[in-house]
Amino acid sequence: MQVAIVTVGDELLAGDTVNTNAAWLGERLADRGATVERVVVVPDRVADIAQEVNELRAEYDAVVTTGGLGPTHDDLTMEAVAAAVGVPVEENEEAVAWITEHTDYEHADLVEGTTHLPKGCRMLPNEKGVAPGCVIESVYVLPGVPDEMKAMFDAIAEEFSGDYRHVRVVEADEPESALVERFAELRDRFDVTVGSYPGDHVRVKLQSTDEEELDRAADWLRERVDGLDEVDEVDGVEGADEADGV
């Protein structure tokens, strides 16, 4: 399953807020076997959000948006997603009922627009806040407040899946630039993906759906890199039963 993440907010683009939501979602989706192919940050403008969502939903299996939910002047994501899929926004009676039954708010207390969702969507209750999210077609609309976003994603996490991906991590004492040719040969010889992350040592992350192939690749690399020690990591998983909570 290929997924794109759209994070909404002028504050993200200005650097006033660190985009921790994208990093958390990327990790959780990878845990479930889904592949995050794109992460996009867009301003609080309906046209920009709608354009990105419309283009990405045509290319990927699912689009997950965070941010821009609620009734304030810069909460425009619902309107934009509705525009992207070609429907109006309207008061969602299920959202009204859920908020009335599960929060301290009455309908009359809510700021106008709080429960306005794209027509025909599936409402996602906000267990940690007020403004609901939704799912429409392949677009999942989540809050920007991290605690709210995490709780809402956890409620729908089982809807994201993919092939079981095994992981091996090795550490090399050589410079990353010195390993380039060996990485190329590794990819030619074995059906694995290779990621390298420089620091005090170079961390080499190998992934494959075939565990035996992965072990052969790790053994091959270990034999050809000086000062290389293998470090096992928890495998990537498919399905909710094996995914670790965060």
Describe this structure in words.
By secondary structure, the chain is an alpha/beta fold. It has helices spanning 10-14, 20-31, 46-59, 77-85, 93-102, 146-156, 180-189, 211-224, and strands at 2-8, 35-42, 62-66, 89-91, 116-118, 122-124, 133-136, 139-142, 166-172, 193-197, 202-208, 229-232. The strands form 3 sheets. It has a 6-stranded mixed β-sheet, with helices on both faces. A hairpin with an 8-residue loop joins strand 6 and strand 7. It starts with a strand and ends in a 14-residue tail after the last strand. Residues 236-246 have low confidence and may be disordered.
In CATH terms, what is the architecture of the largest domain? 3-Layer(aba) Sandwich
State the domain count: 2
Class by helix and strand content? alpha/beta
Supply the CATH class of the largest domain: Alpha Beta
Count of extended strands: 12
Task: Name the CATH superfamily classification of the largest domain.
Answer: MoaB/Mog-like domain
What is the straight-line distance between the termini? Answer: 21 Å
Q: What percent strand?
A: 15-25%
- As for the CATH topology of the largest domain, it is Molybdenum Cofactor Biosythetic Enzyme, Chain A
Largest β-sheet summary: 6 strands, mixed
Strand order of the largest sheet: 2-1-3-8-7-6
- Identify low-pLDDT runs: 236-246
List keywords for this structure.
single chain, 246 residues, alpha/beta, Molybdenum Cofactor Biosythetic Enzyme, Chain A, Alpha-Beta Plaits, 2 domains, 4-stranded antiparallel β-sheet, 35% helix, 24% strand, elongated, disordered C terminus
